[in-house]
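To assess whether ligand presence alters the predicted conformation, the chain was also submitted together with zinc ion. Input:
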Amino acid sequence: MVRHVNRGAVARKGDLPTKVCVTCQRPFTWRRKWERVWEEVKYCSDKCRSNKITPV
Ligand SMILES: [Zn+2]
């Protein structure tokens, strides 16, 4: 048996993974609509996606 160490990525409620939105810097939880693109998801919502911060 291998012990899985998942530092910082352990979901508190349920087993859903979370990420931090690059726009609003808030954590958001995995959603079913992202199940195939979760690796690429960077924004918590379409609003944040269209509101992305441009580098200064
Ligand atoms: Zn956001």
